[in-house]
Specification:
- By secondary structure, the protein is mainly beta.
- It contains one helix and five strands, in the order E-H-E-E-E-E.
- The protein has one domain (9-119): Thiol Ester Dehydrase, Chain A, CATH 3.10.129.
- Strand 3 and strand 4 form a beta hairpin.
- Bound molecules: coenzyme A (COA).
């Protein structure tokens, strides 16, 4: 488990989440990943944060209806007003094995009450040295 705030969440893939091929719609997965990453970033900033960039998105495995998708979101860089979060989505099979379905790097900006970027460094003293996301899934949610 990496240090610092995280935003791990797990979803069950339902029929309403799939595309015309019957596999998880990529846009839905990105929505879930954005949500998980926002939780990690907001926990660090202790403020409202907004997504400014979603980069290096790679889909590596299709996900089927009924699968669990475990999303791990860990902070990997603190800027002046921005927080970058590495996100990995794991497809969990019924037998407990897991494979990476998607990975991405998201950047958030903390905002003040007027909606302007505000410094975040040191906002979360417990997370001085946040680590990158792990390469194997954590224990089940
Ligand atoms: C986020 C937003 C407030 C930033 O405004 P801005 O005028 O670009 O602010 P700044 O130029 O001061 O940049 C703020 C930070 O964002 C970073 N940033 C800006 N554009 C970026 C990009 N394309 N990729 C990565 N980081 C970026 C800057 O590097 C800076 O980080 P730092 O302070 O850690 O160095 C503005 O772009 C915005 O409101 N975007 C829409 C957000 C939104 O609606 N998201 C979807 C819903 S959550």
């Amino acid at each position: 488990m990496s240090a610092g705030p995280r935003g791990d969440i797990t979803h069950r893939v339902l029929p309403s989440d799939v595309n015309h091929l019957g596999t998880l719609f990529g846009g839905r997965l990105l929505e879930w990943m954005d949500g998980a990453a926002e939780i990690a970033a907001a926990r660090y900033a202790r403020r409202v944060v907004v997504t400014v960039a979603m980069e290096q998105v790679v889909f590596t495995q299709p996900v089927q209806v009924g699968d669990l998708v475990r999303i791990e979101a860990a902070i990997d860089r603190i800027g002046r007003t921005s927080i970058r979060v590495q996100v990995t989505a794991w497809r969990e099979l019924t037998d407990g094995t897991a494979v990476i379905a998607c990975a991405a790097r998201l950047t958030f900006v903390a905002l003040d009450a007027s909606g302007r970027p505000v410094p975040v460094r040191g906002a979360c003293p417990d997370a001085d040295a946040p680590q990158a996301a792990e390469t194997s899934p954590s224990s089940p949610a």
